[in-house]
């Protein structure tokens, strides 16, 4: 693993040099990551569409007694999930990176069946701008891989959800430890994390979800064919507060 990691690091040495000089991170956040994530999301959305349709099918069941559905999305990115939300849903968008605005605005215009409340620049671990118990649903897709702390993010999710509200997730995760997929995830890990803005390949967030205080939790392990990438294993499901 160490030898292959070194070879990969040599191939990516210009990026490591830019990182050492303090240039890569601002360039990645502002230009590279929003650009490449849009391209990856197009492919990922095609592969995950049937799973997302099934996942979000029961969203209307979590409307508040008033009939409203208040939804908070953590790590909204360019808004690729908007198409799956029910008509009239009131959406609050958050992302730690504000540089997705161009594609986010484009997807908002394409999905005018939703009411967009506000956009917050916020990390998943710190949603202090969102009042406790104010949301019916929280959604998080392809985000838990890059938060600083999965456990802290889930604590914030539970705080902002009203009792009876639900947390929906779809995340790429670590492969089975005895598999070749996990071997290659370990090889890619340091360079992948640098290039893709802190994305960790070997996280096992289902363990954090099982430890969180959800009254009901449904998790399914699935595989999405993503050619030439180490992000095939995923989990999908939802938890109820």
Automatic annotation (TrEMBL):
Coiled coil: none annotated. InterPro entries: Methyltransf_11, SAM-dependent_MTases_sf, Thiol_S-MT. Residues 72-169 form the Methyltransferase type domain. One of its GO terms (molecular function) is S-adenosylmethionine-dependent methyltransferase activity. It holds the Pfam family Methyltransf_11. This is MET7A protein.
């Amino acid at each position: 693993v160490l030898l292959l990691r070194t070879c990969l690091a040599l191939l990516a040495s210009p990026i490591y040099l830019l990182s050492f000089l303090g240039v890569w991170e601002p360039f990645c956040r502002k230009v590279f990551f929003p650009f490449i994530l849009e391209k990856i999301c197009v492919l990922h959305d095609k592969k995950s569409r049937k799973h997302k349709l099934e996942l979000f099918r029961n969203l209307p069941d979590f409307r508040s007694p008033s009939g409203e559905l208040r939804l908070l999305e953590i790590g909204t990115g360019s808004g690729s999930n908007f198409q799956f939300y029910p008509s009239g849903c009131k959406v609050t968008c958050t992302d730690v990176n504000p540089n997705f605005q161009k594609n986010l605005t484009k997807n908002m215009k394409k999905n005018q069946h939703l009411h967009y409340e506000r956009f917050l620049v916020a990390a998943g671990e710190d949603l202090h701008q969102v009042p406790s118990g104010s949301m019916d649903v929280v959604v998080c897709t392809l985000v838990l891989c890059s938060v600083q702390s999965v456990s802290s993010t889930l604590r914030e999710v539970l705080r902002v959800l009203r009792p009876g509200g639900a947390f929906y997730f779809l995340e790429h995760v670590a492969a089975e430890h005895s598999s070749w997929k996990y071997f290659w995830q370990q090889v890619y890990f340091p360079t992948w994390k640098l290039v893709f803005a802190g994305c960790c390949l070997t996280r096992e967030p289902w363990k954090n979800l099982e430890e969180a205080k959800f009254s009901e939790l449904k998790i399914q392990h699935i595989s999405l064919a993503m050619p030439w990438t180490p992000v095939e294993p995923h989990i999908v499901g939802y938890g109820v507060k």
